[in-house]
Design brief:
By secondary structure, this protein is an all-alpha fold. Helix content is 75%, strand content 0%. It has four helices and no strands. The model has no long low-confidence stretch (mean pLDDT 95).
Length: 77
């Protein structure tokens, strides 16, 4: 029986750091040009939507250092 995505992820977490990074590199390298175009288009659409929301006043800006501090605090747990 084939492993599920969750099983693969959990198994990969048990690898040494160098091996985990090799897995990541190979997975990223496996993205086809067509898939990369889809990814790029999705990111472009997301960036445009966020800019539009900012310009409409729906989201606020924060200083970069504050944003990084908040991200660090969230994932430090």
């Amino acid at each position: 029986m084939a492993m599920t995505k969750r099983q693969i992820i959990e198994a990969a977490k048990g690898l040494k750091l160098d091996d985990r990074m090799d897995v990541v590199d190979e997975l990223v390298a496996s993205v086809t040009p067509d898939e990369q175009r889809e990814i790029d288009k999705a990111w472009e659409e997301e960036a445009e939507a966020r800019l539009d929301a900012f310009e409409r006043g729906e989201i606020k800006d924060v200083p970069g250092e504050q944003a990084l501090d908040e991200i660090e605090a969230k994932y430090r747990k």
